[in-house]
UniProtKB/TrEMBL annotation:
Classification lineage: Bacteria, Bacillati, Actinomycetota, Actinomycetes, Kitasatosporales
Compositionally skewed regions (Pro residues) per UniProt: 67-79
Domain of life: Bacteria
Protein name: Uncharacterized protein
Region (Disordered) location: 1-27, 62-102
Length: 213
């Protein structure tokens, strides 16, 4: 963002619908907010505009009531809002669960489903797409976080997602067997093939790969 929004643009942001982040304004106002990466234009008719996570933060900082769990309006994609959103692979020291983070995850996941719908010839959203196969670890981590699984931090146990030497496969680890099983189920629901394996140094891990059909 090169400069902060004007007073008129802030009024548009502050007037956003609490649940969806949908905004209304003049054409130039909306276009400028998109250029500032504070809003995005929905790809499907009627092409409404919605706040990005950065736009939501400005709205909340201005004193507006924090938005509740948002309606699943598709976002611009998991990494699209100016690089603001990053899937948590596990081990990030600042991985704190907040309402703002939950909103960002929900927006990113709905954006990913929209990418699936637009890029699969049959419009399917129940299996990963080429975009995800090019970003395996982050795509799997997004599926886990969107399902409510908790990433590891410096002091808290949780899942960790890592790349593997195998083509189109990532490893998912969690020190708690029940939580590892929950991770497996979350990935299966998101369209991944999952198998569980014992590791040489003890413990178990998941190998997950995108399902193609």
């Amino acid at each position: 963002m090169t400069r902060p929004p004007t007073a008129a643009q802030r009024r548009v942001i502050e007037a956003a619908e609490p649940e969806t982040g949908r905004i209304t304004g003049t054409g130039p106002q909306l276009a400028r907010l998109v250029a500032l990466r504070l809003a995005f234009r929905h790809p499907r008719p009627p092409h409404d505009h919605f706040l990005t996570p950065a736009g939501h933060r400005i709205r909340e900082a201005a004193g507006a009531a924090p938005a509740p769990e948002p309606h699943p309006e598709p976002g611009p994609g998991p990494s699209a809002p100016g690089g603001v959103f990053t899937a948590r692979l596990g081990g990030e020291p600042d991985a704190v669960a907040t309402p703002a983070r939950a909103r960002e995850v929900r927006t990113a996941w709905q954006g990913l489903l929209e990418i699936r719908r637009m890029t699969h010839p049959d419009g399917a959203t129940d299996r990963p797409c080429a975009w995800e196969r090019g970003r395996l670890a982050h795509s799997a981590a997004l599926a886990l976080e969107a399902a409510g699984c908790v990433p590891a931090t410096g002091t808290t146990p949780g899942y960790r997602v890592t790349d593997t030497p195998q083509p189109e496969a990532v490893a998912v680890r969690h020190p708690e067997p029940a939580a590892l099983a929950a991770c497996a189920e979350a990935l299966r629901r998101a369209g991944w093939q999952v198998s569980e394996h014992a590791e040489a140094r003890g413990g178990r891990c998941l190998l997950a790969s995108p399902r193609r059909a």
